[in-house]
């Protein structure tokens, strides 16, 4: 990790230090995803079964996980099951509290309000890969259930044996999701957006994935009768603000926990102490040596930085400019500094709060804006699975009060029919 002193950098150098990996417009990728989507739209399940064989190495007869396949849940240990159930309980509790409530009020003869309603059909994409992302399933399924989404369609790539990991099966059952479809990649996104013989069409798609999944979500969201996406996605990232009292072992472990995600992941240490920076550097090297994903970590760290700030005030200015997905505060009286946080996906306050707890079981959602999108996007929550519908109900006295205002504004915009809709009512009341 390169070390820089913020006060000695030019504006151009500061931008370079905080720059993420450039998202390239890969024409070949865009074209390939477009072809996959078109194939799924035309050939439905047949295309999905062919892609499962081609990309996942799985020969499938059916996309839907059968009841018999759920017997694999028995292979999980009691500790594994209990860990999942504890995480579910915490995540459900947090999201229940954060669920938006409908409201109404009266003002000047008008009753106004907002109704929160669930999106009826949602798709939940759970990535495959080397390990089952059980935590992602929980982060999607629980708020979708609390929101009241009537149809929740879960898709996940099968293993080469044609099966879904038992931990995914158990977590889905525990979250009240009974239908799981064995499909992954851009083809699964296409199936969710447009529907096939087996997989129902949904209105909005949630969940992370590789560059093919991300591109497919973008394309279907821009297609008529496709599906909305949850948020823009990019490589994972963390920024740690640490003072001279921070524990270098803890700081290093937090940086490495993020660096192991992906070679494109970015980690930044923002500290007021050169001495701490040196200790963290040594600790990063020590801990990396015994971690299983050390090669990924080394590539990630090569893109990362240690920034020396003159004080905490400057540190928070830099952090807000960067707008990290994860912000960790390892500073004295950390909670007192929360008012200074303007742009961040999620904040982990104090030395006993590693980012890992938010990833798995504290209760907050780990689907968060990356790539600087925390400047304008929020992390996933129940409201993402809902729509807000405003309403108004005017009484006769209400239209008398507001009508002349509307008539004047309609005249101002030259919209006679708008004005007339009010005028005929006022005339009726005055007749």
TrEMBL record:
Keyword Protease carried by entry: no
Residues reported to bind NAD(+): 125, 187, 210
UniProt enzyme class: oxidoreductase
Active site: 325 (proton acceptor), 326 (proton acceptor)
Cofactor: Zn(2+)
Cofactor note: Binds 1 zinc ion per subunit.
Catalytically driven reaction(s): L-histidinol + 2 NAD(+) + H2O = L-histidine + 2 NADH + 3 H(+)
Protein name: Histidinol dehydrogenase
Organism per entry: Aquella oligotrophica
